[in-house]
# Entry
Amino acid sequence: MNAPSRSEVTEKFQQLLQEVASREGVATWAQKWVIADNPTDMEKDIWEALQFLASADLISTDRPYLYSAQDFERELAKLLKC
Amino acid sequence: MRMCWKLILLAVWLIGQTLGFGMTGICHESLYYAQPSAVWQQILPANCGYDALPNEAIRGYDCPAHPASAYDNPINHSTGGEKRSFEGIRPLFASTAEFLAAESGASSALQGARLSEHLTQLEKYGSQGFKELENGNIRYYGDLKAASTPGEMSGARLVREWNPETGAKRTWYETLDHSGTVRSVRPETGGPKVHYIFDANGNYTGTR
# Structure
């Protein structure tokens, strides 16, 4: 399985922020790399971004989702800074 | 007559084992996790292999025979909810070679392969360290990603567990509250996503 490009991962963050993609869809997209038995080689920041995206649809006990748009912006900024 | 005594001793031993006074008798470990284990066997799919996860996590902490289990979960179920930190998570590379080399009967090639696999898992999933479980599995902990929205939960982290014997791996997200208690576990299987929810005392409350 090939690693996603930086632009692909960036686009997923932007889709989340613009609410043109569902959290569940983005999380499932990222999940396949996160759960792979043999993790694909990729740059560390892209790997960390995928780990976060796979958790985008985690729920919380006192609100529908654990993470907010502010969290997506923070993680996207980390990715773009590299 | 001698045979009769042997039969009596065997019967006494069997009764002792049945009542839980065997090798672990003094620490009552089985009493601590017998019920939670049964609960998890009911709520988790039988074929998903996650039964050992909560079972491991809620083992008795003050069991003198297993002091290493004191870091398995931030909640001490045996004393009614005392919070424990994850001080048992090992720093990166601590005793890795010793642990993997200690596998008796394993060839050097196999040990090398295991060490390589361990380092790969550590690099990818163990940014916050790893710990060796009593069953021989190794569990790797990722960074806690904080949630910016104020609320009951502080954030979530990715956890992976690897069985060096079989090569099997499993991955899940844990959501933690501000006291460091794991409040939900979501296995990442590639199938339906199920959150197993716990209250602040670590009691299982249901799925979402």
Remarks:
- Chain A touches chain B at residues 24, 27, 31-32, 34-35, 37-39, 47-48, 51-52, 54-55, 57-63, 66-68, 70-71, 74-75 (CB under 8 Å).
- Residues 59 and 65 of chain A are 4 Å apart (CA to CA).
